[in-house]
């Protein structure tokens, strides 16, 4: 094992996990990490079988997170795992992250970061106290053209922002939701496992994060209208949220998991006084720049005209499509620089701070709907950035 590579552990993400595969491939793409061990499954034998397929040391394939922490901390510091990926159902994120942070591990965590804002704030305080790196995998922030969009907005290329529109439409719940027995079997529709929200907590928060990431705006108020479709379905599966930002700027988040036939349709459009930028996840190599009385310009990865941030985030020559693995890899690469104490750009990876913002958004849209579609403030009193 190379001593220069960051030793990586994983909680969850075993043989049946799609997102676990994405994380492992992303970690290896930048050649900065090596997977050493973890607690990959609640069934230890399945975890061992999985570890065996990856040629991992079975002595470092643990039955539980408690065994993982104890086992790794019994090893010499030079040998133990340094950073741990949490790829479990939502309800486990907070307790596992808290244990790992307090034990001195850096953490890379799937979103939503916790089930409540209070839990997210507590983790933010623990990250500061224990001086660890915490990366939250809002994966889409890693796309080169999203980073180009962020840079162009910051440089004033579209002028003062006037309107922001983000959409995230999927249809995967549609075949399930209409069958009472089927929907009982889906963990994302179970409040005990998914948390307070399904649609907004799973995908709406991505659209919200994309808005704040690309524009630099802070959302101050939301007004939402969420739907569960059926009275006996506890969690939202569709919704719209109106947003208010600083300086009276307006925006909207539209999210649905019953948009029949949609796959992973995340889009964002930012309209400024002198121009606009549009990007969509299903065609991620194209960033559209719109101006009055001027033909639409298309920015693509790998070209010299892009910002340094976009160029650093591009792995292929022009004309070679980059996708979700590359995007996640950029987040891993940013986190690696932070873990190694190297200089890195702001926005190189989403932090625990983004997790707090996301939980505040989720709770605000739920409260707005519960209060008869009223405006709810997103309070910022504890934040300093």
Question: Nutshell version of this structure?
Answer:
With 385 residues, the chain is an alpha/beta fold.
Uncertain ranges: none
- Cα-to-Cα separation, first versus last residue: 39 Å
- What general outline do the C-alpha atoms trace? globular
Q: What percentage of amino acids are in beta strands?
A: 15-25%
Structural class: alpha/beta
How large is the radius of gyration? 21 Å
> Can you tell me the CATH class of the largest domain?
Alpha Beta
Counting DSSP H or I runs of 4 or more residues, the number of helices is: 13
Number of strands: 14
Instruction: Going across the biggest sheet, name each strand in turn.
Output: 13-12-11-10-6-9-8-7-14
Largest sheet: 9 strands, mixed
Descriptive report:
Residues 146-277 form the GFO/IDH/MocA-like oxidoreductase domain. The structure is a single chain. This protein is of the alpha/beta class. The protein folds into two domains: 6-139, 3-Layer(aba) Sandwich (Rossmann fold); 149-309 and 351-370, Dihydrodipicolinate Reductase, domain 2 (2-Layer Sandwich). The protein is built from 13 helices and 14 strands. The strands form two sheets. A nine-stranded mixed beta sheet has the order 13-12-11-10-6-9-8-7-14. Helix 5 (117-130) packs antiparallel against helix 13 (352-370) and helix 10 packs across helix 13. The protein is globular.
């Amino acid at each position: 094992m190379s001593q220069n590579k960051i030793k990586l552990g994983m909680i969850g993400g075993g043989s049946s996990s799609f997102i676990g595969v994405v994380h492992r491939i992303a970690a290896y793409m930048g050649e900065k990490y090596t997977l050493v061990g973890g607690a990959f499954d609640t069934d230890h034998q399945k975890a061992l079988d999985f570890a065996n397929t990856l040629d991992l040391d079975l002595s470092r394939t643990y039955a539980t997170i408690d065994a993982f922490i104890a086992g790794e901390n019994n090893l010499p510091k030079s040998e133990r795992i340094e950073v741990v990926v949490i790829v479990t159902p939502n309800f486990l994120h907070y307790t596992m992250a808290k244990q790992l942070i307090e034990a001195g591990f850096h953490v890379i965590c799937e979103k939503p970061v916790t089930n409540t804002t209070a839990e997210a704030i507590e983790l933010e305080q623990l990250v500061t106290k224990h001086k660890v790196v915490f990366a939250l995998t809002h994966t889409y922030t890693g796309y080169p053209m999203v980073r180009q969009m962020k840079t162009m907005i910051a440089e004033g290329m579209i002028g003062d922002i006037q309107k922001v529109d983000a959409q995230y439409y999927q249809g995967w719940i549609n075949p399930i939701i209409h069958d009472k027995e089927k929907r009982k079997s889906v963990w994302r529709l179970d409040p005990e496992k998914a948390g307070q929200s399904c649609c907004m907590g799973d995908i709406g928060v991505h659209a919200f994060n994309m808005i704040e990431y690309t524009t630099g705006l802070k959302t101050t108020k939301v007004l939402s209208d969420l739907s569960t479709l059926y009275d006996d379905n506890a969690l939202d599966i569709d919704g719209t949220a109106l947003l208010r930002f600083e300086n009276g700027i307006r925006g909207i988040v539209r999210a649905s998991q019953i948009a029949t036939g949609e796959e992973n349709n995340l889009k964002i459009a930012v309209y400024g006084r002198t121009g606009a930028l549009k990007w969509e996840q299903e065609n991620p190599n194209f960033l559209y720049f719109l101006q009055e009385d001027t033909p639409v310009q298309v920015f693509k990865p790998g070209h010299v005209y892009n910002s340094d941030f976009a160029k650093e985030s591009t792995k292929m020559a022009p004309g070679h499509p980059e996708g979700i693995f590359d995007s996640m890899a950029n987040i891993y690469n940013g986190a690696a620089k932070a873990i190694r104490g190297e200089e890195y750009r702001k926005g190189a990876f989403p932090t625990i701070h983004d997790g707090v913002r996301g939980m505040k958004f989720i709770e605000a849209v739920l409260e707005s709907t519960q209060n008869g579609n009223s405006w709810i403030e997103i309070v910022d009193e504890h934040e300093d950035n």
